[in-house]
Amino acid sequence: MMDPTTQLIAADEKAAGIAAQTLARGGLVAFPTETVYGLGADATQPEAIARLYQAKGRPSFNPLIAHVADLAAAQAIARFDAQSLALAQALWPGPLTLVLPKAQGCPVADLATAGLDTVAVRVPAHPVAHAILQALGRPVAAPSANLSGHVSPTTAAHVASDLNGRIDLIVDGGPVRVGVESTIVACLTVPTMLRPGGVPRGDIERVLGMALAEPAADTDPDTPLAPGMLASHYAPRTKVRLDARQITAGDALLAFGAPAISGAENAVATLNLSPRGDLIEAAANLFGFLRALDGKGARGIAVMPIPHHGLGEAINDRLRRAAAPQD
Ligand code: TXA
Ligand code: MG
């Protein structure tokens, strides 16, 4: 039985339009790609991205892949060099994700890239995914459509068993073809394989005419083997102080909720993640506000306590990383 809040539709000729409308409203749509089913949200809407993390139950904000309809759309969000362009031309559409510098004016929300200056982009080779991306005309952030910690779904039934009642729409396009996630290659310095996947290493190396580099050993003790995390985390230059109970002169204040904080009038700048104490709104604002306060030349950024339930866990996880001493 489907939960009344999650609609399941067949991938017929009307499906792409319905899916695109749902995404444009900020809704969450599971759809087939050739690798696995993705859980999509409009990548330009931070609140939709926050709801996506919440629906997956992710305890941290991992950067997401932005899916687009074609290379031209990819070039509007990411900067290609000769090597990444060659890979895109040879292997897109297909199960290859490229991690690239963000293009100037990249509309992808900071929350979708976890505040990084890079963006993961992919042009999927599935007619249903393509039709949805074409109809929306905006990038769609989509992790695999499973609960955090579960395996990636290859049928609409897998998606429903994890996410029924947590998302707006499931587009059933039958079982997927590839069944493993996309291969992720970073083209930032030398082309580096971040995650093996649907495109074999040899196919990529043949296009490049050289071997792919291996990622440097991950230094993050929480997620030693998590793919993608080696690209490091967004960290403000200004020192971040968590669970602040009072503000001293020279601090910038990252507030949460309604209660006043002692000394707030001393703050050189104040931004409130969510005056009404809503964690979805707070997550949507998190990276943008950290960046904004980082630019104020404050002595430190004082962050008010943020509850740990729901998206609060991921928000606190990111804030802890931002507060950790840098090398
Ligand atoms: O086949 C796939 O790739 C599927 C379908 C739905 O497209 N998607 C998928 O997404 O597997 P997800 O979220 O489960 O995995 C995305 C990976 C994560 O390991 C993440 O860390 C990495 O991509 N990633 C995303 N943006 C990145 C970035 N800017 N730098 C480094 N790694 C990044
Ligand atoms: Mg996944």
Give an overview in words.
With 327 residues, this protein is of the alpha/beta class. It is 28% helix and 18% strand. It has 9 helices and 14 strands. The protein has helices at residues 15-24, 46-56, 71-75, 82-91, 127-136, 156-163, 201-208, 279-294, 312-323, and strands at residues 7-10, 29-32, 37-42, 65-67, 96-101, 118-122, 140-141, 169-172, 183-186, 192-195, 239-241, 251-255, 269-272, 300-303. A 10-stranded mixed beta sheet has the order 1-8-2-3-7-4-6-5-9-10, with helices on both faces. The chain has a 4-stranded parallel beta sheet with strand order 11-14-12-13. The radius of gyration is 20 Å and the shape is globular. The structure holds threonylcarbamoyladenylate and magnesium ion.
